[in-house]
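pasting for the record
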Amino acid sequence: MSADVTGAPHLHEARQRLEHARSSRLAQLHALDETARTTNDPLLSEQRNAMRETLKEIEEAFARLDAGTYGRCVGCAAPVPAERLEILPYTRHCVACRSRKA
C-alpha cells in the first residue's frame, strides 16, 4: 500500500475505498428499508439510523478528500495511520482521539 507524506493512502485508492463503502452501505440501507415495510421492529429502525449516519460520515470523508484534509485526524491533526484508513476509510479520528471520544 502506498502512502503520501501524511500517511494517508493515495487519493485514488482512498476514493475507491470510500466509493465501495458507500455502495455497500446504500445496498444495506435499501435492504433494511425493504424489510421495514413489512415489520415494525425498533431494532430495525436503529439499524437504519446507524446506516444513515455512516453514509453521512462517508460523504464527509469525500469532502475531506476534496479539501485535501483526508487522512488527518480532526481532533489532533495528526496523520491517521494508513492501516486504520484501509479498515475504516471514512474515519475522522486517529485511535487515540477516538478512544478519548468514546
